[in-house]
Write a structure and sequence with these properties.
By secondary structure, the protein is of the alpha+beta class. Helix content is 51%, strand content 11%. Strands 1, 5, 6 and 7 form a four-stranded mixed β-sheet that branches. α3 packs antiparallel against α4 and α5 packs antiparallel against α6. The longest helix is centred in the first third of the chain and has 26 residues.
């Protein structure tokens, strides 16, 4: 419980340091059946084509938000551990135990009903979360669980480890940063985001724009925004 409260406070602290909210195109299916992500036409051979945008219209938004929050965690978990002596391990371990024991429903993680290309990404992101925030015991259990699936499981592990390598864990002085330090931290986090999305969306050109002030403040905690664009041609 202590970590959960502190983690929310740290998100607010990052907001005060200029951490932006995100604006990005949605994954949409047009009237003629063509699926698009920004300017990118999604062919039927690409993994996103297996997402039903009628049933799950916010799929991409949730995916990007999940990745962005993990990247933010990678910047303040060290501070919470050093200053307050607690971390996310117990909560993450419980979540993984529920996932691996099929005691809770997790979107796109069921090997019986979900197509592997989508499950690969969603289950892979759960493994990334565990690599960032789980105990060593749970990391080993998660990998062992996936290895029992043979090539499918090894594919998920390789994907997750590539994503993990693109999140640069650091321990900046989040509660005492200068304006220049905050700007550098936010810029580095956005670079991580661009790199991770490029792994998640192979072949898509991902660009993250500059941080700019929000013209109208709304329910978002942040006063700033960074826009993501997707371009390119997929074979």
């Amino acid at each position: 419980k202590g970590y959960v409260i502190l983690h929310e406070l740290m998100h607010h602290q990052l907001d005060q340091a200029g951490c932006p909210c995100l604006s990005c195109p949605q994954l949409v299916t047009e009237a003629d059946g063509t699926m698009r992500l920004g300017q990118v036409v999604i062919p039927k051979t690409y993994w996103l084509s297996l997402v039903n945008t009628t049933i799950d219209p916010t799929f991409l938004m949730v995916l990007v938000k999940t990745i962005w929050e993990l990247i933010q965690h990678s910047r303040f978990n060290g501070f919470i551990k050093n200053e307050f002596g607690c971390g996310p391990e117990s909560a993450r371990d419980q979540e993984v135990q529920e996932l691996l024991g099929a005691r809770a429903q997790f979107p796109y993680c069921n090997p019986r009903t979900d197509p592997h290309p989508v499950r690969r990404v969603m289950l892979g992101l759960h493994l990334v979360t565990t690599l960032l925030e789980g105990s060593e015991r749970m990391k080993d259990q998660f990998r062992a669980y996936l290895r029992r699936e043979g090539d499918y499981g090894n594919d998920i592990i390789e994907f997750a480890e590539e994503v993990f390598r693109n999140i640069n864990i650091s321990d900046p002085p989040v509660c005492s940063m200068s304006e220049e330090e905050a700007e550098a931290m936010n810029g580095a986090m956005l670079m991580d985001l661009q790199a991770v999305l490029s792994v998640v969306l192979p072949g898509v050109v991902v660009e993250v724009g500059d941080v700019t002030p929000l013209q109208i403040l709304h329910a978002s905690r942040s006063r700033f925004v960074a826009s993501i664009s997707f371009t390119g041609t997929l074979a």
